[in-house]
Design brief:
With 554 residues, the protein is α+β, with helices and mostly antiparallel strands. Among the domains are: 17-114, Immunoglobulins (Immunoglobulin-like), CATH 2.60.40; 118-216, Sandwich (Immunoglobulin-like), CATH 2.60.40; 234-399, 3-Layer(aba) Sandwich (Collagenase (Catalytic Domain)), CATH 3.40.390. It is built from nine helices and 30 strands. The strands form seven sheets. The protein has a seven-stranded mixed sheet with strand order 20-22-21-25-27-26-30, with helices on both faces. The chain has a five-stranded mixed sheet with strand order 1-14-18-19-12. Strands 2-10-9-5-7 form a five-stranded antiparallel sheet, with no helix packed on it. A hairpin with an 8-residue loop joins strand 26 (358-363) and strand 27 (372-377). The longest helix has 16 residues, at 385-400. The model is unreliable at 1-26, 163-174 and 529-542 (pLDDT under 50).
């Protein structure tokens, strides 16, 4: 990660929440334990706990849209509520809201003050032509120079050159522009990266303030295929020796005819298969799968602007996902004779190193089927961990096992009643998303057996708030997992979902909890102690887009 030197003098750092309690009467049926001032940086999703004791049932509320309170009610006794910001304050001045706690006719009012320091780019994205050049990056801030840092993502630093200090310009008392020089893109693939405004807390840890996505066009349309003789060719890469043979069909997009001829396509498909079976429990269940490679010759190796590929894949800049022609994918799946296409996992690999990943989970109200399309570029390089991890997350987690994301997104706050109902419908009607739940009670949550089973004590399974992309109202089984950060194994409830799906599709049976545990004890991954992802220069971890659910009859 590369730090770009800043050359300006600007306002004051540390946006905070000031939480001050005050009583409205002397008859105490609510006693606040939290006193004094609690300080938090005023960026999205910062939170603070308010502790109190209530002599009877209570409820808490806040009228501000930028502030959430959780939980909003409870019984008598010692209690903790969490107040959290849902947005960064970019107004330039402080804003205040009251949190009210009511119990037994008594009210306590707590003032929550969010200060207004900020650093923000004037635009969300910067589009750079293939020839590169110097561009002005406009931003506004009221933070001091020694507390504000500009970082470039690892993918951007190779083609970004910062200008000399004498080129900087101050637009007004809070506005600035920073000239940056981008090198020409000699590749026929578009490329992307990001710039981050980051401040440091007192311990020196980076806190993200704003992100500017940078996209650079491909050099030109590039080479065009002329030989389509290999298109549609089917090859069996892995033959099942157990069960019925669960079908997986691999195909690539953006591979031109000469990359088929020189075996580039074949090497990518082989590595894709190896990656799919790199994590437990599917690693030890490989003998239940028939894996096919279907050759798809694309007219061009280009994914931006004009869609000139076999499956029309185009990276989506807004969602960080990938658009695809689902009908074209199904057409190539059906080139494999004799398979049950509606219970096939289709995996489409983009001939690009762009950081993306998404899965189309298909369903129907008229019939049950397990069809899905997982899309993943060759992120960074063919042998990279990023490619392996994102592919596993998408294809095995979402596509095959129908697992939910366990991470949260900065655009989401608390799950609504509608969100919870939709989640429960997926549980009950489709058997999907069994690794997240709206139930906090450890005796009622979907994975309660794992919590109280000593065989899984080392995995620290519990109910961790945050999942299904929401910060509040949805719970996940473990602090980290493949479905949250990508760089940890599947947790036990996710491993069970994968195992059960293999037993159902491969053997036509419903596995018991005891059968899974017996299998898992022989094949589960080593116990890990997850530590926060090591970040250089304050880099913000990238996560693939949530799955897209499509109800369709084929």
């Amino acid at each position: 990660m590369k730090r770009i030197q800043l050359f300006f003098t600007i306002g004051l750092l540390t946006a905070v929440l000031l939480i001050v309690g005050c009583s409205e009467d002397e008859t105490e049926s609510i006693t606040l334990s939290t006193t004094g001032t609690t300080e938090l940086y005023s960026v999205t999703n910062q939170s603070a706990d308010i502790k109190f004791t209530a002599s009877s049932s209570w409820k808490a509320s806040s009228a501000a849209k930028w502030l959430t309170v959780s939980p909003k009610s409870g019984d008598a006794g010692s209690q903790v509520i969490t107040v959290a910001t849902t947005a960064t304050n970019r107004t330039g001045s402080s804003r205040v809201s009251n949190v009210t706690i009511e119990s037994g006719g008594t009210k306590k009012t707590i003032s929550v003050k969010q200060r207004g320091e900020y650093a923000v780019f004037d635009v969300d994205e910067l589009n750079v032509p293939s020839e590169g050049g110097t561009y002005r990056v406009d931003f506004r801030t009221n933070l001091e120079e020694n507390q504000l840092f500009l970082y470039a993502s690892a993918k951007l630093e190779d083609w970004l050159k910062d200008k000399e200090s004498d080129a900087r310009t101050r637009a007004d008392y809070t506005g600035y522009l920073y000239p940056l020089r981008f090198l020409p893109n000699e590749s026929t693939n578009a490329r992307d990266g990001a710039l981050f405004w980051v401040m440091k807390d007192k311990a020196g840890n980076p806190i993200l303030l704003d992100t500017l996505f940078v996209y650079q066009e491909a050099r030109d349309l590039g080479y065009m295929s002329s030989d389509y003789s290999a298109d549609g060719k089917v090859e069996l890469l892995n033959k099942a020796t157990e069960g019925k043979g669960i079908p997986i069909v691999l195909m690539g997009d953006g591979f031109v005819d000469k990359e088929i001829a020189d075996s580039t396509y074949a090497r990518v498909m082989q590595q894709t298969m190896d990656n799919l079976f790199s994590e437990e429990p599917i690693k030890s269940l490989r003998d239940y799968f028939n894996v096919y490679q279907v050759t798809a010759v694309s007219p061009r190796n280009l994914f931006e602007g004009i869609s000139s590929t076999a499956f029309g894949t185009v990276p989506d800049r807004q969602t960080m996902g990938i658009d695809v022609d689902a009908n074209a994918v199904m057409k190539y799946v059906k080139k494999v004779e004799g398979i049950d296409s509606l219970n096939t996992l289709a995996v489409v690999i983009l001939n690009s190193s762009i950081s993306r990943g998404v899965t189309y989970m298909m369903g129907s109200n008229k019939q049950e089927y397990n069809y899905a399309i997982a899309l993943c570029p060759v992120i960074d390089s063919l042998k990279s961990e990023s490619f392996r991890q994102v592919l596993t997350h998408e294809a095995v987690g979402h596509g095959f096992a129908k697992l939910a994301d366990e991470y949260v997104r900065s655009t989401e706050g608390s799950a609504t009643d509608k969100d919870i109902k939709e989640l429960k419908d997926k549980h009950e009607k489709l058997g999907w998303f069994l690794n997240v739940d709206s139930e906090k009670d450890s005796t009622k949550v979907l994975w309660t057996k794992f919590i109280y089973d000593p065989e899984f004590a080392n995995e620290q399974i519990g109910t961790y708030e945050g999942g299904y992309t929401f910060y509040k109202g949805v719970y996940r089984p473990t602090q980290e997992s493949m479905m949250r950060s990508n760089n940890a194994p599947f947790n036990a409830p996710s491993r069970q979902a994968i195992y059960n799906k293999v037993m159902k599709l491969g053997l036509g049976k419903t596995a018991t909890y005891e059968e899974f545990v017996a299998f898992d004890q022989q094949h589960k991954p080593p116990v890990w102690t997850y530590q926060s992802r090591t970040r250089q220069g304050g880099e913000i971890p990238w996560r693939p887009a949530p799955p897209r659910i499509i109800f369709k009859t084929w």
